[in-house]
Amino acid sequence: MPKPSPNRRRRLLAAKRRIREFQMIAKGLASTDHPILAHIIPIRRCNLACEYCNEYDDFSKPVPLEAMKSRVDHLARLGTSIVTLSGGEPLLHPELDDIIAHIRRRRMIAGMITNGYLLVAERIQRLNRAGLDHLQISIDNVMPDEVSKKSLKVLDRKLQLLAEHAEFHVNINSVVGGGIHNPHDALVVGRRAVQLGFTSTIGIIHDGDGQLRPLGDDEREVFLKMKELDKRHYARFNWFQNNIANGQPNDWRCRAGARYLYICEDGLVHYCSQQRGTPGVPLEKYTTEDIRREFLTEKGCAPNCTVSCVHQVSYMDHWRAPQTIREPQPQVAARQLVQIE
Predict the structure, then answer these.
(1) 139-193, pLDDT tens digit by residue?
(2) Model-level pTM greater than 0.85?
(3) Could you tell me the end-to-end alpha-carbon distance of the chain, in angstroms, rounded to an integer?
(4) Cα dihedral across residues 241, 254, 21, 319: positive or negative
(5) CA–CA gap between residue 274 and residue 277 (Å, rounded)
(6) Strand pairing class (199-204; 297-298)
(7) CB 147 within 8 Å of CB 51
């Protein structure tokens, strides 16, 4: 039997992926006792040094493969639906493909956030074979500057390679706010992403605690135009950003520690990358009881939070279970981190 053409194969894989995503939604609506999304760090080291970001270093060794597999196994036992690899730069991990393949063997959706610098045709094809489902690249500007080297000029060839070879979904996230000099660059990046057949989202740079950073007039104009570019992807569930753009807090129930987990390179569970230290429990000791407790715990940082992934997974449960438990004090000191969502 002849192999399907590349375009037909992509459509077939996309259809299968959508079925699994619908199953994820159905499972999430049926029960609140499992995480929807876990971000896990296979390596803290990064090959870039963006000025706004200190969620990386230039020396950390990769987490050993067996430790990563063990963490993935426990996430599967907890019933996690999506596992996304980030960092640092996950492509620096020498056994990344094995980690992705293990996520898929455990019947979870596999995602990755990368700066894209290390992507070549052969590397993309290896990600295909490993079974990657979703990849996101954040592009900060059109031309590199002292704030960020993640520019369209540098990465456009990488995007073309993804358009030619990737069998997984690709989302390009452009940004406004913070130290980004020209907010209109976000529109250039977003339009290029859509032109290449990718989805496009817009992120707002938040401060070192993941908190509110209102936009200026030009930034707000670009933000609104970007939101009209592409509305097909589930990441478009970002209504909370409208308030952030206007400098207003959000009234919502953050389910971090329950529906969303952030697992650092040391294997500890945190609310998110911006609230490290709480609850600060080793993943192997994390149980359904921890999930139930955190589901009902009100987070003091929630009103001014800008961390998109936590908002998005929490939307599913906004209508149920008012939060009645006060947030505990961190068990270890939280690090000041900056991340773009």
Answers:
(1) 989 998 877 889 999 999 999 999 999 999 999 998 777 666 788 898 999 999 9
(2) yes
(3) 44
(4) negative
(5) 9
(6) unpaired
(7) yes
